[in-house]
Amino acid sequence: MAVGMSGLLVLTIGLAMAAPSSAAIYKVGDASGWTILGNINYTDWTAKKTFHVGDIIEFTYPQGIHNVLEVTKADYDSCTNSTPIATHTSGDDKIAIKRPGHRFFICGVPGHCAAGQKVNIRVPKPRSSDAPSKAPAPAPTRSAAATPSGSSEPSAASPPAASSTDSTPDAPTTTAPAPNANGAGVRGGYRAVVATALAAVASMAMLQ
To answer: Which residues of 110-127 are buried (b: 16+ CB within 10 A; e: fewer)?
Structure first.
């Protein structure tokens, strides 16, 4: 088991070392480096690059001859070296890009910035189209007779059905003829009674 685990550890380390790094290292000025010689246009140099968060910007120069000052945009535009954000003097300065936006660098040696030894590193923000889109969930639908959430009362639109366990028999009903508007039903019944009485009288007379 120990041999198997050690072999797996070696394989994992090997794969990690073989995997390419997503961060890129950009040497400012390429082969010329950070200098005032050769009329290097650092604006053209940045225009040909696409920087991302995590990339490394490397300034190489003879130590003591130049330096690297990170400054504000106003100081970059005016080549002011009196209030730098950060100062680098190693001759091989590696600066990590940790956020999108602009970062401004100049050489603080008098006259060097005015001679063109300045660079504006622009890191664009991620585009909104690069972010995964999430479709909105459809709104839940409710029927007209649905009961509000948390309520046990039946909806007014749907009255409760009669109980199927009601064993009370229905009461007998009789339907009398409804009289019309002029009372014809009452007069018809009265005439029937009179006719019946007259027929009875006539029968009695014949029997005598």
So the answer is: eebbeeebbbebebeeee
